[in-house]
Amino acid sequence: LACSVGGLASAAVADLRDFQAADGSVVVRVGGDVVDPYFANKALIIAMDAGVDVRKELRAWMAWLLPRQRADGGFDRFCGGRGAEWRACMGADADDATAATTIHLLRSALSRGWLNARETEQARLAERRATAMLSTLYDDRNGLYRVFATQPVYYLMDNIEVYEALRSQQRPAPAAALAKSILSQFRSNGAWQPAIPLMD
């Protein structure tokens, strides 16, 4: 995400021209043809938190992304759109983090009043679907969220992103419970482990 500041008194503005196509898609690499919703979501969240005005880029991204949400509330990765039609070519790298950043991004846009009535309705529907996805990933045995529903693997960073999503939804009790589980499950003998089980 390239940002420029036009003077001390000016607000930062985003320059995504090398990453965002006219259709609103945001590729992972300059000149590439792969879209990973997680990375686009995360870049826009960071920009917003830094005070960068990305409302135009965000609204274009939402218009491209939200119609591609799967029925289960998740998102795939997409290939090929720079030269042909976009197609789902890979599953998400992590369903929990993708759902969490989708929720966080949409909540951030809504709280800033950046969306019109139609976009607000679409955002709330997408948020409900992403929240439903997260609920399928929750493991009540350890209080953590799995990377995928079918795999008992848990990532520290992903669970922190779910925590941020819960906070953005103003759900303090689940957020506090998750924070407690993160501390008890991922920290041992004064050190953090990045995943459970710990991978080679």
Task: Describe this protein with a few key phrases.
200 residues; alpha+beta; three-stranded antiparallel beta sheet; two-stranded antiparallel ribbon; 45% helix
Give the SSE layout:
Elements: E1 2-4, E2 13-15, E3 34-35, H1 37-49, H2 55-65, E4 77-79, E5 87-90, H3 95-111, H4 117-137, E6 138-139, E7 144-145, E8 154-155, H5 156-168, H6 172-186, E9 187-188, E10 191-192, E11 195-196
Antiparallel strand pairs: 1-2, 3-4, 4-5, 6-7, 8-11, 9-10
How would you explain this protein's 3D organization?
This protein has 200 residues and is α+β, with helices and mostly antiparallel strands. It has 6 helices and 11 strands. The chain has a 3-stranded antiparallel sheet. A two-stranded antiparallel sheet has the order 1-2. The protein has a two-stranded antiparallel sheet with strand order 6-7. A hairpin with an 8-residue loop joins strand 1 and strand 2 (13-15).
Q: Write out the strand line-up for the largest beta sheet, numbering strands in chain order.
A: 3-4-5
Secondary structure: number of strands: 11
Share of helical residues: 40-55%
Strand content: 5-15%
Q: How does the helix and strand content classify structurally?
A: alpha+beta
Q: Total helix count?
A: 6
Rg over C-alpha atoms, rounded to the nearest angstrom: 17 Å
Q: Characterize the main sheet.
A: 3 strands, antiparallel
Which H/E pattern describes the elements?
EEEHHEEHHEEEHHEEE
Which geometry do the CA atoms define?
Answer: globular
Termini separation: 31 Å
Mean pLDDT: 90
Unreliable sequence segments: 1-10
